[in-house]
Amino acid sequence: MKKYLYLLFFGIIFTFISCSSSDDHTETISVASSRATYYDPELGKQEPCFLIKKKPNDSWDGSIIIDNFNYNPGFEYTLKVQPTGFRTEYQGYVCLKVLSKVQKKSDNLPSNLWDK
Fold first, then answer.
1. Side-chain half-sphere exposure of 39, counting CA atoms within 13 A
2. Residue 11 contacts by C-beta under 8 Å, 6 or more apart in sequence?
3. CA distance 104 to 94
4. Which of 20, 30, 65, 79 is deepest in the core (most CB within 10 A)?
5. How far is the C-alpha of 107 from the C-alpha of 32, rounded, in Å?
6. Which of 33, 27, 42 is nearest to 116 (CA)?
């Protein structure tokens, strides 16, 4: 009986250890050199948001939150990020590392997203 309890105990410990890795869900994204706006229904007004791409040929999409990221307009960034658990059209990220910062004007940027 002790043998089975030990197996159960180590199985549970192994499960917790394997689920705690921070590199499990990382992504690389580009952040545009300027921001767009979106309509926030809770505030009843337009608010700024980041423009991001997950792949170079993708269209720019919006993200309201990129935690741990010090943004400067006029620079296009490549970031290693981890998505937050907040899964709606307002998906956010946590910046793990700035991979590149290049002074340039990003191409094909929309002026606003999610209009009223």
1. 5
2. none
3. 23
4. 79
5. 8
6. 42
Go through the domains of the chain in sequence order and give each one's CATH number. Answer: 24-106 (2.40.50)
Cα distances (Å, whole numbers) of residue 75 to 39, 86, 102, 110 = 24, 26, 5, 17
Cα–Cα distance, 70 to 92 (Å, whole number): 15
Q: How far is CA 95 from CA 7, 8, 25, 32, 52, in A?
A: 38, 37, 12, 15, 13
Q: What's the predicted TM-score (pTM) here?
A: 0.73
List the structure tokens of 15: 């499960």
* pLDDT tens, position by position, 38-93: 888 888 998 888 999 999 999 998 888 899 999 999 999 999 999 987 555 557 89
Contact 68, 16 (CB under 8 A): no
β partners of residue 67: 94
